[in-house]
Amino acid sequence: MRQLAALKEEVNQWRELERRARDALELAILLVETGDETLEEELAQEAEGIDSQLKKLEYSLLFSGEHDSKGAILSIHAGAGGTDAQDWAEMLLRMYLRWAESKGFRTEILDTSYGEEAGIKSATIVVEGPYAYGYLKAEKGVHRLVRLSPFDAAHRRHTSFALVEVWPDIEEEIEVEVKPEDLKIEVFRASGPGGQHMQKNATAVRITHIPTGIVVTCQSERSQVQNKAAALRILKARLYQREREEREKELARLKGEHVEAGWGNQIRSYVLHPYKLVKDLRTGVEVSDPYRVLDGDLDAFIEAYLRKNIGRTD
Question: Which long-range contacts (CB under 8 A, 24 or more apart) does 276-284 make?
Answer without folding.
Answer: 280/304, 280/305, 282/308, 283/308
